[in-house]
Structure formats: structure tokens, C-alpha cells
Amino acid sequence: QVQLVESGGGLVQAGGSLRLSCAASGRTFSGYPMGWFRQAPGKQRNLVAAITSGNSIYYAAPVKGRFTISRDNAKNTVYLQMNSLKPEDTAVYYCAVRIVLGSISLSEKEYAYWGQGTQVTVSS
After folding, report:
1. Tens digits of pLDDT across the chain (124 residues)
2. Are 60 and 50 in contact (CB under 8 A)?
3. Which of 16, 18, 28, 111 has the smallest CB count inside 10 Å?
4. CA 56 and chain centroid, separation
5. Per residue in 89-109, is it b (16+ CB within 10 Å) or e — as a string?
6. Which residues contact 95 (CB under 8 A, 6 or more apart)?
7. Quick one: pLDDT at residue 102?
8. What phi and psi values does residue 62 have, to the nearest 5 degrees?
9. Is residue 28 a contact partner of residue 97, using CB atoms and an 8 Å limit?
10. Strand, coil or helix: 108
């Protein structure tokens, strides 16, 4: 059974940092793109960052320069380092895996496996 388990969320003041982790089990995802989405209350779930097996990376404009995505294929884990956090970063963050070799997709419909989500709250 495939599981993606996120950790590292929490409450932080504006300007602070958090590091999210997503550990996968049940199968190896080293060849597939992995990403982080977020969903704020009443809003659509959007891709924040994604990384391919070849370390090609996408960042959404609002987080570029502040967030860093990385992956450790040996640990089947993807990370999201979030610096200079802003109140507008408050959301539930989800990791996801796209079971298509190579390319990143911005659409959540293209991602087959999802974690349960972790809450990130940034206070002003």
C-alpha cells in the first residue's frame, strides 16, 4: 500500500522558516516527479513547487526565491524548505507524486498519490 506522510508543519511568525518532509512508502518514486501543493481556506489547491528525478524544478511565482524543493531518492523523500514566510503562505500543504516519467504538471489531476496534508500557519 502506497503512503505519503508529510511532517514539519506548524505555527510560525512572519519571516520565519519551516521545513516540510514527505516520506513515501509502498513503492519507489525515484523516477517520477514529486511536488508540493497548497490549499488555503476557500481557495483552489495549487502547485507550489515540483522536482523531477533529474532535478528539474518548478516554483510558483509567489514562492520563488523563498522556498526550496529537494529530494532524497535513497530515502524516497521530498522536502520543502520555506524561508521568509508570509501570512499569505498559510495553507494546508500536500505532497504528491505524478506517475509519468519526466515532466512536471501544474494540474493536480495529473498526480496519482497524495499525502494527508500538513497545516502551515504564518502569523503576522
Report:
1. 999 999 999 999 999 999 999 999 999 999 999 999 999 999 999 999 999 999 899 999 999 999 999 999 999 999 999 999 999 999 999 999 999 987 899 999 999 999 999 999 999 9
2. no
3. 28
4. 15
5. bbbbbbbbbbeeeeebbeebe
6. 4, 6, 20, 22, 34, 35, 36, 37, 78, 80, 114, 115
7. 79
8. -65, -20
9. no
10. helix
Residue recorded with cell 515532466: 103
Residue whose entry in the numeric block shows the C-alpha cell 512536471 = 104
| C-alpha to C-alpha distance for 50 and 73, rounded to whole angstroms | 14
Residue with cell 533529474: 54
Which pLDDT score, from 0 to 100, does residue 32 have? 95
| End-to-end Cα, the chain, rounded Å | 40
**CA 12/CA 116 separation, integer angstroms:** 21
